[in-house]
Structures are given as structure tokens and as C-alpha cells.
Amino acid sequence: MPEAVTESAPEPFVARYSLLKLFLWFGASGGMAALALAMATGKSGTIGLVIGAVGVIFFGGIAAVHLVRLFDRRAQVIIDSDGLYVRSHGEKRIPLRAIKTMRTDVISSRMARLSIFLHKPAKHPIATRHRRFIYRINGGGAREFFGDVWIWTTHLDQPIDSIIRAIWAHHPMTEFEKQVAALEGAALGG
Fold first, then answer.
1. How does DSSP classify residue 15?
2. Distance between start and end Cα atoms, the chain
3. What's the pLDDT at 96?
4. CA distances from 123 to 4, 5, 16, 98, 186 (A)
5. Which pLDDT score, from 0 to 100, does residue 172 have?
6. Environment class of 164 (CB within 10 Å of its CB; exposed 0-12, middle 13-18, buried 19+)
């Protein structure tokens, strides 16, 4: 019988909001809100007032969200032996064995989304109101676009590659995978 593969458990992975990224997003959205305010208070008539007011509400709201997040130092993503925790998805941990597949959508080097598809998504429903709202307004294509769980790295202090590596590092091996690893180790050692 082959020797069992023994490895120490990897360190828990934790991603928090990046203060620098949030500050930059706050500045950009706050700047847009200021421009919209200038448009609303300028001499552009009723249409300019309406468009400016909508811009102030939209971009000002985004700036306010980023300002609040600047003070939120809680872990947003945790990956460890207990599973996957995504704060914006809900408080319930998702076992790593529940992950069927993953897909990355990279918009730029700093903006990426990890879409995670689960074997039984009904066992791990979206628990937060804002995420359920986003999912519903996207209709029937929401699951294909977002997945069952999604993680934007736009505001996090960890890149998407680190999140994927952490998922694989903590993913429990089946007995068959352990036997294959042991056989490979025996073949390489002997």
C-alpha cells in the first residue's frame, strides 16, 4: 500500500478592502458628483438641472458607499478548511467541495470578477439584499453572467489569482486523489 501524502494545512486566506483602491474610487466618484453638481447649478436649464441632479445622486451615492467601506476592516473573503466565506454573498460558509467550476472575467489588471458555480446553488442562496437585487434585475442570464457566487477584486487587497490559488490550496482531496498523489510521489521517489 502506498505511503499517505502528508502536508500541513495551508494558512487561511483573508482578503479585506484595499484602502488605496477605495480612496481612489471615492475620489473618482466624488469628482464626478462634483461635476454633476456644477452642471445642476449651472445655467443649463431644466434638462441640465435634471441630468445634474441624477448625476449627483448616482455618483454621490457611489462615493458615500466607498467612504463607508474605507472604515470597514472586516474580512470580505475568507478561504480556509471550513470553506469559502464571501461577506457580500451572505454569512453562511460554502464548502469548497460544493464548487463545480470557476470562471474569471478580467476587465483590467485591477478589475476582475471570479464567478463561482456550485453543484447545488439552492443550498447556498444569496443572502444579502443588494446582491439579490442585482441578480434579479439581470433576469434569466444572471447565473451565466455572475455565477452562483461572485467576487469582485476591484476593491480588495488581494488579486484574483491569489483567491483562486487559495481555493485550490484548501480544496480537500478525495481518497482517489490522495492515492494518485501517493503513487506519483512513490514513482518520483523510487
1. E
2. 14
3. 92
4. 33, 32, 26, 9, 39
5. 79
6. middle
Cell 463607508, located at residue:
68
Whether pTM exceeds 0.85: no
The identity of residue 171, as a single letter, is H
- DSSP conformational letter for 17: B
Nine-digit cell at 185? Answer: 510521489
CB-based burial, 29-56: b 16+ in 10 Å, e otherwise: bbebbeebbebbeeeeeeebeeebeebb
Cβ-Cβ contacts under 8 Å for 113 (sequence gap 6 or more): 104, 105, 107, 146, 150, 151, 152, 153, 160
Residues in the chain where the model's pLDDT stays below 50: 1-5
**Where are the strands (E) in the chain, listed by range?**
13-15, 77-80, 83-86, 99-106, 112-118, 149-152
Neighbours of 163 (CB within 10 A): 23
Q: How far is CA 66 from CA 60, 90, 119, 134, in A?
A: 10, 20, 33, 18
pLDDT at 3: 47
Measured CA to CA, the distance from residue 136 to residue 146 in angstroms comes to: 11
Spatial separation of the C-alpha atoms in residues 84 and 116, rounded to whole Å: 11
